[in-house]
Design brief:
This protein is of the alpha/beta class and 176 residues long. It has a single domain (18-174), classed as MoaB/Mog-like domain (Molybdenum Cofactor Biosythetic Enzyme, Chain A, 3-Layer(aba) Sandwich), CATH 3.40.980.10. The protein is 48% helix and 19% strand. A six-stranded mixed beta sheet has the order 2-1-3-6-5-4, with helices on both faces. β5 (136-140) and β6 (143-148) form a beta hairpin. The chain is globular and about 50 Å long. It starts with a helix and ends with a helix.
Length: 176
């Protein structure tokens, strides 16, 4: 790591407030119907944040619905209680995968390296199937926004290798 990067990371905030949206129509509908829902990726995110001393401001389920995702994002972008927003799920290529289409118009800056690096790291684990993800990150209203796949393995990879090591560094620069 360069000396400049080390210095920037020292100046970055230590504790961040994360808002997490799990995008999945099937689990959302089950939850709304009063059924018990197993949210493995959401639990994993919550545990990783807890283990690293970060704050989980909220975690909620959303369906794969562009308008609902956009409405939720608008609210959180206006909130002063969240630094980092994570959308987990809906980043694939099926017709129902609309997270990227919903989130991208709000970005003031995009971080193409996030998706590129995630796909490279994912390639090392799952091979050429990594090209099917559209993992994405950007900045909106001084907040860092990540759109990541919903599988537990992808969540673990994103958080351990990319999000947790860099979110505060990204936030520092986004607010300069």
């Amino acid at each position: 790591m360069s000396k400049t990067t080390q210095e920037h990371k020292k100046q970055a905030p230590r504790r961040l407030r994360f808002g997490v949206f799990i995008c999945t129509t099937s689990r959302y509908q089950a939850f709304k119907a009063g059924k018990k829902v197993k949210d493995e990726s959401g639990e994993l995110i919550a545990n990783l944040l807890l283990q690293t001393g970060q704050e989980l401001a909220f975690r909620t389920l959303l369906p794969d619905d562009k308008e609902l995702i956009q409405s939720a994002l608008k609210k959180v972008l206006d909130s002063k209680n969240v630094d980092v927003v994570v959308f987990s799920g809906g980043t694939g290529i099926s017709p129902k995968d609309v997270t990227i289409e919903a989130v991208e118009p709000f970005m003031e800056k995009t971080l193409p390296g996030f998706g590129e690096l995630f796909r490279w790291l994912s390639y090392e684990e799952i091979g050429s199937a990594s090209i099917l993800t559209r993992a994405f990150a950007g900045i909106a209203k001084g907040k860092v926004v990540f759109c990541i796949p919903g599988s537990p393995n992808a969540v673990k990879l994103c958080f351990e290798k990319l999000i947790l090591p860099e979110a505060s560094h990204i936030l520092k620069h986004s607010q300069e």
